[in-house]
Amino acid sequence: MDIFKAISDLTTLPGVTGNEAAVSRAVQGYFRAHTDDVWIDAMGNTYGRIGNPDGPTLLVMAHMDEVGMMVTDIEENGMLRLRSVAGVDPRVLPGSEVRVFGREILPAVVGALPPHLQNADDKDKAYKIDDLVCDTGLPVERVRELVQVGDNVTFAPFPPMKLKNNFIAGKTFDDRACIVCMLEAMDILKNYKLHCNVVFCASVQEESAGGGAKAGGYNIHPAMAIAMDVCHAPQPGAKPTDYVEFDKVSVCRGGNIHPKMFEKIKASATEQNLPWETDVCIAHTGTDAWALQVERGGIPTGLISLPLRYMHTSVECISLDTLKNCAKVIAGVAANIGADWEETLCLDD
Amino acid sequence: MFDKDMLKSILAAYGPSGREQTVSDVIRSYVEPFADEVYNDTLGNLIAVKKGTSGKKVMLSAHMDQIGLIVVDIDEKGFLRVSNVGGVNPVVSLAREVQFENGTHGVTYFETEKHGAKDATMPELFVDIGATTREEAEAKVQIGDVAVYVTNFVEMGSRVSSGALDDRIACAAVVEAFRTMQNVHDVYAVFTVQEEVGLRGAGAAAYAIEPDLNISLDVTGTGDTPKCGRMSVKLGAGATVKVMDSSVIVPPVVRAFLVEAADEKNIRWQPEVLRAGGTDTGAVQRTRGGILSGCISIPTRYIHSPVETADMGDYEAAVQLVCAAVAKQELPHR
Amino acid sequence: MLGRLEALCNLNGVSGDEGRVRRYIRDIAKEYADEVWVDAMGNLYAHKKGEGRRVMACAHMDEVGMIVWGAMDNGLLAYQAGGIDPRVVVSKRVVIGPDEVPGVIGSKAIHLQSREEFSHVLGHNELFIDIGAKDKADALKYVNPGDYVSFTTKWERYGEDKMKAKALDDRVGCAIALELLKNSYDCDFYAVFTVQEELGLRGAQAAVYNVKPEVALILEGTTANDMPEAEGHQHVTKVGAGPAISFMDGGTIVRPKMFEALKRTAEEAGIPFQIRQGTRGGTDAGAIHKALSGCIAGGISVPCRYIHSPSSVASIRDFENAYKLADSFLKTKKFDEVL
What we know:
heterotrimer, A: alpha+beta, Aminopeptidase, Elongation Factor Tu (Ef-tu), domain 3, 2 domains, 8-stranded mixed β-sheet, 17 strands, 28% helix, C: alpha+beta, 11-stranded mixed β-sheet, 6-stranded antiparallel β-sheet, 9 helices, 28% strand, globular
């Protein structure tokens, strides 16, 4: 699979949390390359199934929504006011190129009062979202025709940049890079005769805690699940415990993770000699794993993460080599599931 | 014209979160003549069913509960100490007349030793019911009893002000729609409990009903009063079709369905992005494997105060929009 | 029952690592229940089959604690904590992981601290566990990131009618639920021992789906704030004043019928009780009552001072009376009156 092309395709589509239809259509297309068994549910979660339909189900989930903005008001002069929809840092917005998804897709920029017009006290203060405007350059009448309160705004969908050492930078790698990882895992698994049933799910509304993963867990009712998300890579100001090295697959351990799922993931990485690291989280992992774990009377859940820098900005940065390794780890877990799967999940007390 | 007497009696009924039986009985008396079936579920949600012909189920939900003050202690001088039930602002709650379920009235004040009223906190608040000893107080009120604001129904032209408009005005709107609607689908009008303490009732009702579509009705804030927080919603500009609040992002297909229903019948509507605060819409959406869920709001000023204010034109638009939505053959789907 | 409480409190079972507690309870429950099983999250179920209402008594097995985050270059361990005030961990003994590796949590000597540092509260991110390791590599020979960390306090009877221990919240509930299993009640009875309550009622969310109770009785250790400075309305509960009956907590408003039934049970049986005079703090009731299509949930709690610290204090009589109250509720079939 051309991984860079898939990432380009998927990350340049708008899919602000709660409004993922365009990404869903593209993901369905990619899933169809591997299977005819593709569907969506009432939340918009998008599924592709491979493997043995009579076997135990492994649900693999990565979310396709992105953080973004929404129009909250239209000013007298046609400028738009915005709010963040789940986790955009307003400090990264001034000077950003964005797109407004109104009746038409409008290019726009985010602006703020220039520093030389601010008084000395305000210059040191970070911008809040209410200090900012979104400027389409259009006259107010035209703006009112084309834009409505509630329309989504995203970072401009520039294709990813290739950096040195097989690193790439771009928007929405959180978490579409992991969708690509799932596609790569599907690609690897086509060469295997699987004992298990694998359902890949591109989930919705992870960023807004809107219940995409919860519905996915309920609808699939899997024997076990693995969520895939991004985690922090080394970056300025971060302590060693805050991140996982760029070249390592992050394997989570903690209250949110079934101990045996941790073991399965670890075994898959170790067997294939892939570098990995334990990432500890005592409780809420801030990923789809949290909702999956308690659904339908409890689902044994694991979490694999791809290290990423500058999360929730338009220049998120990952290593393509590590992405491929994540896919191999997932594929390995699926391939290792055998007839003894139930025993392998028993907690040893 | 709207049924003012009904609205007034639903507004006046006692019903803080967890103690909704009285208001439930009042609402039941209004819907029962028009329903095929009416019942309360385990949590106390009131559910009225009106059969349709399509085999599909539409849930309408509005919460019956209101915010209140729950008694946690009675001191030796007969003063009651309280804690909040739902989002009660302690400053808005002091120097108020309040009332308990058994009719006991009292007034609220606060400990003045340390600071003025604007800094009052909930643990400093107390209720004076005229008792002079603990025994005298305990004869009227028990620990665990809940007081609500005593408020007036004020008519100001097309606008009304009262406590508990959140969300009794929407309960009244659902009743009014329930009486007149020409529904093609089975309609489950659900008057939910415990919304104010974290959307606790609606999910249980939706779990049992498994609707194809839920439409919640609630109040929403406005951005049209002097120097208030920024918001596009205005009083008198129509019912709102919710885009998002802190509990939900309404699926675009549901918004489009409601907007189409409004436009077909020339009903005034405005889009709503609510910055803070959740609604039953979100709780229903997250039930089982996901339920398509939208929300129509009635713009309301001064929410969670005893003088919540709304425009009856918006109320009527909300009633019409509900009627238009449940009469549409084709329900939204992914 | 007291002997079992001692054993339970002395076992280590931080949220997410309840295996030791689960094994202890399972071995005893097997003798009394018709079936005993563990679900995918680690919740333990003991079922005594019967006719009539499906009633569940529920206590959580987990205790507050810490988890090893990673080893520093100097061999000290960074940790994450759940539900523990960092002010209570300094200068405590701990054990780590399946092999219970001993360690201590220290801080800079008072002699080396400046005047400003005296008033500064050390956060968990500034505190480390010392296992005597020479450096990072040495530390990782003995512990792994993700190993759980518990305090070493031993259960002890002391003072008058008092006990002190770690994890009274909620091993008191576990001991009571186990004791209830010995009896026969006129209902379809489940004793459920949940995991991860302290992480946000996690186990209970799964357990309610697996049991689908009509009535749930949550057995808890709860805050007692009967401190000298506290006024009446700030006590929440008082140690020694009897088991506490809840009308509300941070996640639940108890249905009035249930609250009244519990009070009536105590009055009829002559069991001393107090009303839990607080509205904050979560219990598994919050997850249970609103799940599925809803059920009736109420709570009986044993007041515990210094809850969520390495040494909490409770009254033995309160504990015994909490059992009697739960037993009377079930014996007199009050569950039939609350729906």
